[in-house]
């Protein structure tokens, strides 16, 4: 999982599309999702939160909120598949449905290692420069 999180922030066409949608004025909402909703979606949501000016602590808190929802999904899946799963299968399911601070921390560490700052990463990878982010913040945030 850690290796996946180290790779997700870079050269990611889905996040380029997300950044393009964020910077295009639109009416309504934007929905981002993936199969489980914690890995690709988690880093994509982190990108969005950083783009509107959230700090790392807030981004991590938001990411970790996913855990509560996934425990319900895990319980449902164990109820559905429990008798058919081996011990290894149960462990694999738990790994897939677990949210850990270390996962997103691995992505952030890779970002800092490659670019030095989140701001530099947003600008270099997704063209979310300071002026673009200021316009995005003005459009999306309330005082």
Automatic annotation (TrEMBL):
SUPFAM superfamilies named in the record: (Phosphotyrosine protein) phosphatases II (SSF52799)
UniProt cross-references to InterPro entries, sorted A to Z: Prot-tyrosine_phosphatase-like (IPR029021), Tyr/Ser_Pase_IphP-type (IPR026893)
Domain of life: Bacteria
Recorded GO MF terms: phosphoprotein phosphatase activity
Official protein name in the record: Anaerobic C4-dicarboxylate transporter
Species the sequence originates in: Klebsiella pneumoniae subsp. ozaenae
């Amino acid at each position: 999982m850690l290796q996946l999180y180290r790779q997700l922030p870079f050269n990611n066409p889905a996040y380029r599309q997300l950044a393009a949608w964020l910077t295009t004025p639109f009416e309504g909402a934007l929905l981002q999702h993936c199969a489980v909703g914690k890995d690709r979606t988690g880093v994509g949501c982190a990108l969005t939160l950083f783009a509107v000016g959230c700090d790392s602590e807030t981004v991590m808190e938001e990411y970790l909120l996913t855990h509560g929802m996934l425990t319900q999904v895990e319980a449902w899946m164990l109820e559905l598949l429990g008798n058919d799963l081996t011990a290894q299968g149960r462990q694999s399911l738990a790994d897939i449905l677990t949210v850990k601070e270390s996962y997103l921390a691995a992505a952030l560490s890779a970002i800092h290692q490659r670019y030095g700052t989140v701001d530099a990463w947003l600008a270099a990878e997704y063209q979310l420069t300071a002026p673009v982010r200021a316009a995005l913040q003005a459009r999306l945030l309330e005082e």
